Amino acid sequence: MKLVFLGTSGSMPTERRGSCSAVLKVGRDLIMLDCGEGTQRQMVRAHVGFRRNMVVLVSHLHGDHVLGLPGLLQTMSLLGRDKRLDIYGPEGLISYVKAFSEALGGPTFPVILHEVHEPGVVYEDEDLRVTAAASSHTLEGWSYSVLEKPRPGRFHPEKARALGVPEGPLWHTLQHGEDVEVEGRVVEAGMVADPPRRGRKVVYSGDTRPTAELVELARGADVLVHEATFAEELAERAREDGHSTTVEAAGVARDAGVRLLVLTHLSSRYPEPGGLLDEARKVFARVVIAEDLMELEVPLDEVAEAA
Amino acid sequence: MKLVFLGTSGSMPTERRGSCSAVLKVGRDLIMLDCGEGTQRQMVRAHVGFRRNMVVLVSHLHGDHVLGLPGLLQTMSLLGRDKRLDIYGPEGLISYVKAFSEALGGPTFPVILHEVHEPGVVYEDEDLRVTAAASSHTLEGWSYSVLEKPRPGRFHPEKARALGVPEGPLWHTLQHGEDVEVEGRVVEAGMVADPPRRGRKVVYSGDTRPTAELVELARGADVLVHEATFAEELAERAREDGHSTTVEAAGVARDAGVRLLVLTHLSSRYPEPGGLLDEARKVFARVVIAEDLMELEVPLDEVAEAA
Fold first, then answer.
1. Residue B69: closest CA among chain A residues belongs to which residue?
2. A63:B71 CB<8 A
3. Spatial CA neighbour of B24 closest among B252, B277, B200
4. Which of A92, A171, B87, B117 is the most exposed place for a label (fewest CB within 10 A)?
């Protein structure tokens, strides 16, 4: 699992930071978190392909978070994508995509739009579960958690052999945590494989004030990507504009007990973000500032928690 | 007069080239030629301000030429622009701008949209005249010429003094090419100033096949910015897609007798454009390939042509 930041600016792009977007690579698949202007070009730069299985999670319908969608769909069309693309976002998503598609021509592959109307699970497949919680901004929006489902623990072939289990379908069954029978004896999965590994969890705040809902959503996350539009001295401005300060973002990370906090959506007034980092660090030590094209391996916890 | 290329890619951006846009700086004012995705960020990089007097000329309503408009208008709004902005383009421009403004919130300053319905002069002020000619693409579009009006010739104060003209309003009159009377004698403008200088001319093709109309529009231009999506070996593809090859663009430049040809809108299949340049050069020697953030001083012709 790898998180790639494509754009990390606040409402206006700067020389250093493009409009907001990130992708979470899960194997060969992609979960995109917002899609600000310039996202498609950053995907080229980050060598993120346009033909992969992909789901887009839109936090809210402000231009700096969604103006990259038309170009992304156009480029995918030009490249002949035929796989469906699912986009999740707040009410208004459908009319936004319809508006630019009608004006400029729509995509030539299936784009499925899902408006999220209530908190809870919005997307689920074999490997992942995406959950939304309401954000608190100047218009309706959602924060998202992406939770990997528990995966089988590490399999030890030598132990299976020692217990007389022949290589083949029985190994496969054991690898998936189920017991097998060999010549009348039961071989338990736990005898030849480590306990299941907990899934990794990445949470994205979108633009928001710090809220109890977000703390709950982010509980125990490996990575919390949280907006920090302003330094603490602009706390009042943050409150007025429905944004968070460095210190507020760090407070969410601390209260949720996350492993790593990544600050993004920095206002263009901070060309050098060192001061922001120092502020946040006083509240929560494990914090970094996102940079465009920064890649972050989401660490696999080998310690079994599901055991 | 300076031409600044903001994006020079074909329909898809690449690592090296962003979507199509250029600005012509005329003194402190700006004429923008198309506004592809990412234009606002390139403006930041090129130190082109968001509060200047500005006119946007849109060649046609394909995404790679207009997807930067929503973000540009949003950023201008956030920065508190109050000056009007005039945008010219083909039919459909109004419904496009209306569509994204309704979906995401419109600009907070006056944006005046002008749909161009026939060739001829579309915009004129004290200094400039903008003329449109129909392009030949897969949908309605326009090529534009920006022609500076003739400017007064260089004024020689020492000659005025020698002829007894006192510094002040009379100098101003002479500088603007009009004769004055001093103590009963007529002093002609031509006695103290060089002949008027012809205005500079910059022409932008948009996406198009080479046409007689474009040759006419570009006649004698200082700079012709012409699309060259394909190399000559893809001439048939160019014909099918309503684009031009290097050699076709060079032919337009040659037939129009321009001073400099700049090739832009290069397909992403040409990461290294050296071969394209060589092809074009065989037909027309004074040719360069546009690069993102390239700046080009449009030379002032000191030789009076209006004399």
1. A67
2. yes
3. B200
4. B117
Please give, rounded to a whole number of angstroms, the shortest distance from the CA of B59 to a CA of chain A.
14
Q: Which two tokens stand for residue A191?
A: 């005898």
Q: Does A101 touch chain B (CB under 8 A)?
A: no
Least confident of A174-188, A229-243, B10-24: A174-188
Lowest mean pLDDT among A181-185, B130-134, B254-258: A181-185
Contact flag A13-B105 (C-beta cutoff 8 Å): no
Whole-number pLDDT of residue B307 = 31
Would you name the residues of B annotated as active-site residues?
A: 64
- Judged by CB atoms closer than 8 Å, whether chains meet at A78 and B102 is answered as no
- Fold annotation for B2-151+197-297: Metallo-beta-lactamase; Chain A (3.60.15)
Does residue B163 belong to the interface with chain A, where contact is any CB pair within 8 Å? no
Short-list B70, B23, B283, B233, CA closest to A69: B70
Backbone angles phi, psi at B174, to 5 degrees: -60, -40
Q: CA-to-CA distance for B205 and B209, rounded, in angstroms?
A: 9
Residue ranges matching CATH 3.60.15.10 in chain A: 2-151+197-297
Chain B residues whose beta carbon lies within 8 Å of the beta carbon of residue A41: 13-15, 18-19, 37-38
Q: What is the pLDDT of residue B153?
A: 87
| B251 φ, ψ (degrees, to nearest 5) | -65, -40
Q: Is A143 helix (H, G, I), strand (E, B) or coil?
A: strand
CA–CA separation, A48 vs B122, rounded Å? 43
Can you say whether the dihedral through the CA atoms of B133, A104, A96, B23 is positive or negative? negative
A85-142 pLDDT tens trace: 999 999 999 999 999 999 999 999 999 999 999 999 999 998 999 999 999 999 999 9
Q: Residue B66 contacts by C-beta under 8 Å, 6 or more apart in sequence?
A: A104, B34, B35, B36, B58, B89, B96
What residues does B181 pair with on adjacent strands?
A: B186
pLDDT digits (tens, 9 = 90+) for B151-208: 888 899 999 999 999 999 999 999 888 999 999 999 999 999 998 888 999 999 999 9
The complex scores an ipTM of: 0.89
